[in-house]
Write a structure and sequence with these properties.
alpha+beta
């Protein structure tokens, strides 16, 4: 009788273990699909306005309330000011001036964008892309470091692509002006 109970307990533990493994596999597949979707959306952005819209669409799927792409003005080692080039907050793309929203380097993001409606925790990562020195700010939401690491990389790659597009447009303009 004790052997039968022990065997039944082993079966239950085995079934629970298999269920947990199955749930983890499903979660990994879901996160991977989300990574692919956000990468595709961010890489389709052809300017910083489109990047803001893509961020607004994609962040909520990760449970992230806001993101900001900021660049330094002045010397990279001693920036005087910064500008928000792109961003999203609470599912809405930020409407920013074409050259970005300037703010003091003593702030991580401009006070005007920090709504103060609740305490927010931000994760910040430096960014150096195609001669641009700055950083990306993501509001902490989901408790999975992989998500932030991937999003930081995706945003940097999207900015790199936008810079290449802008450089190509400028080359075409110069060539047409020379003709």
């Amino acid at each position: 009788r004790a052997d039968a109970l022990l065997h039944a307990a082993r079966m239950v533990v085995g079934e629970v273990g298999a269920s947990i493994a199955s749930l983890e596999e499903d979660r990994c597949e879901s996160v991977t699909r989300r990574f692919q979707a956000s990468n595709q959306a961010l890489m389709q952005a052809r300017d910083v306005g489109a990047l803001s819209r893509a961020l607004a669409e994609q962040l909520s799927g990760y449970g992230i309330g806001s993101a900001f792409l900021c660049v330094h003005d002045g010397e990279p080692r001693a920036p005087t000011t910064a500008r928000v080039l792109a961003g999203a907050r609470d599912g809405q793309a930020l409407e920013l001036p074409p050259d970005g929203l300037p703010f003091s380097r003593s702030e991580v993001i401009p006070r005007a964008l920090d709504s103060g409606d609740r305490a927010r925790v931000y994760l910040v990562r430096s960014l150096e892309v195609a001669g641009i020195h700055g950083y990306v700010v993501l509001e902490k939401g989901i408790d999975d470091r992989r998500v932030y690491r991937v999003l930081f990389e995706q945003i940097g790659a999207a900015l790199r692509r936008i810079r290449l597009i802008e450089d190509r447009r400028e080359q075409v303009r110069r060539r047409e002006a020379a003709e």
